[in-house]
Amino acid sequence: MRHKRRFNFAQPVFFSLLLIIGMFLGFKFHVEIASLLHSKTGNKIDQVFNLVDKKYVDSVDLKKLESETIEGMLSQLDPHSVYIPAEDVKKSNEDLEGNFEGIGVEFFIVKDTIYIVSVIPGGPSEKLGIKAGDKIIKVNGKIVAGKKIKNTEVTGSLRGPSNSFVKISVKRIGIASLIDYNIQRGNVPLNSLDAAYMAAPGIGYIKINTFAATTYDEFFEGITKLKKQGLKSLILDLRGNPGGYLSAAIMIADEFLTAKKLIVYTEGKSSPKKEDFATAAGNFEKGKLIVLVDEGSASASEIVAGAVQDWDRGIIVGRRSFGKGLVQEQAILNDGASLRLTIARYYTPTGRSIQKPYNDGLDYSADLYNRMRHGELTNADSINNDAQKQFKTPSGKIVYGGGGITPDVFIPLDTSAYSAYYSQVVAEGILSELCYQFVDNERQSLAKYKNVDAFVRNFNLPAGFMGNLLKNASAKNIKYVAQEWFRSEKAIRLQAKALIARQLFQKEGYYRVMETNDPAYLKSLELLHRN
Q: By the 8 A CB rule, do 385 and 401 touch?
């Protein structure tokens, strides 16, 4: 089995998600640790700081002032050049490094009780036999249940340096006494591949949530597994994927393209043009390919989608992607803080830049909201492509630059099933809480579902579940409106089933349920069966 080269450098609630993506997108970058050069304006800045330090009427937090000065400077450049204080650098890098140091569990707090939702494969807790559904009652002998504990407090007590120990006591269904564990913290893998399974005979599905240092290896393992199961066509889901390492995007695009085809090139004022080409090796160069994108797909996701589209290699399905075509380089400052500075733009094989505008007084952060307001997310005719930035693929298909990847097949955002009521029961955690309690109480009866296929086919929410939801929502002062309820009941039921599946079968269970009513996913199956 061939293994390619490795690089050492490695939806209501909808608007909230988009806003978060808009805020943090700039943290996804092509890393290249660089020496920080002396600024030409350094002397003047130093003079001002010295004057403030020695002469200002009141005491000043110079460290805070310094950080705010740097942030103000970068705000005049582009939306993705950012300053990260030293204390935040490690945390900001964890998702891209592919691991963190801790005990390896995902948890959810319900009524002041910490429920373990899932145990991360390969982490310290899995090795000791800790199970999803366990409730953490004590940490290092201190009772944490019923203490109005916050998520940050739980994370702070469970994470720590590798090889250090933390003692936890858990309550498990069917066992009267608490079970004590002395857990040696270690590196916990962060998976960037959420699911890899056969969606239909011959059709595989892979979902990638970010492009991290481990993404290619995870993808390779996933597609190898699917090929053994008869993979002929592939749906690659990059929706909501904000990007990450350029190198990971290049390696995955290489899997689909034949040798010597250009994948991407980068170029900037002080960064000479650098081209990346596909190699002779490729794990899926001939099968039918569909790539799913949406307004949350950015950066490295757009590199993959752009290369596939520009070479007529596959069909892009969904909605126009985010539009981030800037490359950041990271410089480590002398106090451990870091500066991620935009040094180049990347271009797809046809030569198009997909970076959306950010100058001329445009509100960059409001772009996604404006897309919705103008109807772009629900009507393909509302997509505002720049006619001056047309490019042609080898087959003569017109593609556009200047603001994201426009899909070949448009899938409108389905807002008909969602309501303010739906948004509230999800955002307030009421639906999640009810699902976790249901699994906690019914884990034995749920054991009859031996695999996710059986669960998806046969499980239905029991009588009384939705009544309990209405009751719990009312207790949280969420007003029942009949029209909103009937509009979103189906979507609530689907989400509830998916959340239950997640507890039983990890993330794959969640996606297997949600995709039974996913227009883009279902359209992809239709296209692959048709062609």
A: no
Q: Which domain holds residue 163?
A: 99-189
Kindly state whether residue 468 falls inside one of the protein's structural domains. yes
Domain count within the chain: 2
Do 159 and 123 form a contact (C-beta atoms < 8 A)? no
Q: What are phi and psi of 103, to 5 degrees?
A: -100, -10
CATH number at residue 185: 2.30.42.10
Catalytic residues: 299, 324, 328
Mean pLDDT of the chain: 86
Sorting pLDDT into bands at 50, 70 and 90, what band is 39? very low
Calpha distance 74→80 (Å, rounded): 9
At a CB cut-off of 8 Å and minimum separation 6, what does 486 contact?
Answer: none
| In a domain? residue 501 | yes
Q: Which of 189, 208, 235 is the last residue of a domain?
A: 189
Distances (CA, A) of 473 to 200, 465, 500: 38, 12, 19
pLDDT at residue 272 greater than cutoff 70: yes
Distance CA 340, CA 84 (A): 8
Q: What is the DSSP letter of 2?
A: -
